[in-house]
Amino acid sequence: MKRIFKYVCLLPVVLFTMQVAMAQQAKTKKILVIGVDGIINTAIDYAATPGIDKITADASYSMNGYGGVPAYSSSGWSTMLTGVSADKHGVTINKSYTGNKFSQYPSVVNRIKSAASSIVVASVVRTPEINTLLNQAADHKFQYATDEEVYNKATELVKQADMGAVFVQFSSPAEVGQEVGFQLRQARYVIAIQKIDEYVAGLHAAIEARSTYANEDWNIFFASTHGGTESGVPQSTTPEEINVPVILSGGELDNKELVGTALAPREGADNILTINKASSGERTYVRVPIKGTALQGMNRFTIETWVKAGANTSDPSIIGDKNWDSGGLPGYTICRSGSTWKINIANQKSERYDIGSTKALEDGNWHHLAVTFDKTKTCAVYQDGVKVAESTLIYKDADNMASPYDYLCLAQDGTQTYGGGAPNWAGSFNEVRIWTDVLSTATIQKYMYLRNIENSDHPNLASLNLYLKMDDVRGTVVRDYSGKGNNGELVGTANERHPYYPIGLTDVSVNILSHLGIRADGTWGLEGSVLKSNVPYRLFKVNN
């Protein structure tokens, strides 16, 4: 009897859910996509932005979304509209669309019109190439010299009865930032962002004022195509340029801030591997077989990786192939050294060097570590692209640098049993690369942020012998993308995998298609993820 009563009580809730679902499905899907050039990731939290705040309150969003490398308006718009990164769409030059592969990776506007030609699409931009090369399939295309003109036309279009999708480009924050710097202490830059907020609020109000609004289901997507440097001079690869706000607002999306460490890894995305310290003391690490490969006993090399250090003590090995019980034993280790790090290296005659960074590593941030080694010349240490230490070496051509162990390990030494800071180094890895060559400072700086190095124009590709992207989402194999077949193995259970960034410009297109009811074909090669909620129409939503 109690069971029957329970189901009877649940029946009204189920019926109500079905009624809401049917009402929601009956509504006409429409979308406004606002792309802005030059808003840095900290700006919206700092400036007065009530219009943007309103759409953020009903959105899946991150102020630290990933814009991609290089961080230009041209590449950013290409990424956002095609749904693939620059290594696929081919736009890598500032203020130029030369080399584009839009025939292979067309704009989401083309995909909308191909799949649902009845949807009326408009594109209102500052940059003419967006309309002529990317959004040429739009029914209405306009290009203006000022943001105000773009806003006025966009407002007119969203009021148009038959309008289904409107794409808008604003560029004044980038224009001001290039003059005074992308700095929140520069009043002109902040005012430019607040003007964009007025436009967002005005467009939102125009949508809500539509006579048919009650029968429509509008999404509003807002994203910055790139940030900028404090000097205003574009470098294309700095965190200030790459990290951008991405806000996807709409009824079927979770209304929460997206945090990478709270999300599961995504297929085909840039993921990270986090190594924890198990409470049981069981070691967790990655081991790569090096016996008989170019990675064993290297005379010239560059090791580079992105790491985010966890809580550590003593001097655990971050990457190494030697027995770290003694610094005089042959081989190398990159290890913790106080609150920073160093490389220890020795030959088989126990001639050792210890060369360390002077910069903090355990500050809760991601850092790029690089070591270049030329046996008879020098060893240099880099952190975040800056050379922080260098030492002249006395090794001879005949000196043997090989460790007697057959593995190089991440979060352990070559023995796989090192106890200093036991049971293993704790932290996260991304983009681990080992080159059997000495990379120049300029090359390290140019390519340190770039993903998918194997498909790039990197000048040292022939010497790339290990490339662990850490993009794996399951299993124990850590795939090597160098082409040399040096796959690693994940040992131990105290590990996690998460996306490196919670949301990016590549996510915009696939969510536009999803909202409009267009299924993305797997052959398109889109890199984004659909962010729809698993909870039906938010009946039982709990805000984070």
- State the separation between the terminal residues, measured CA to CA: 37 Å
Oligomer: single chain
Percent of residues in helices: 10-25%
**Low-pLDDT segments, ≥5 res:** 1-11, 13-18, 20-24, 534-544
**Order of strands in the sheet with the most strands?**
4-3-5-1-6-7-2-8
Structural class per helix/strand content? alpha+beta
Number of strands: 24
Rg over CA atoms: 26 Å
Shape: elongated
Helix count, per DSSP? 13
Q: Please summarize the sheet with the most strands.
A: 8 strands, mixed
Query: What does the average pLDDT come to?
Result: 92
Share in β-strands: 25-35%
Give the gist of this structure.
Helices cover 24% and strands 27% of the residues.
Textual characterization of the structure:
The protein has 544 residues and is α+β, with helices and mostly antiparallel strands. Helix content is 24%, strand content 27%. The protein contains 13 helices and 24 strands. It has helices at 2-26, 43-46, 50-56, 73-82, 86-89, 108-115, 128-134, 147-158, 172-180, 187-208, 239-242, 441-447, 506-515, and strands at 28-37, 59-66, 120-125, 140-143, 163-170, 216-226, 243-249, 256-257, 271-275, 285-289, 300-309, 317-320, 331-337, 340-346, 352-356, 367-374, 378-383, 386-392, 407-410, 427-435, 464-468, 477-478, 488-491, 495-499. The strands form three sheets. Strands 4-3-5-1-6-7-2-8 form an eight-stranded mixed beta sheet, sandwiched between helices. Helix 3 crosses helix 10 and helix 9 (172-180) runs antiparallel to helix 10. Mean pLDDT is 92; it is low at 1-11, 13-18, 20-24 and 534-544.
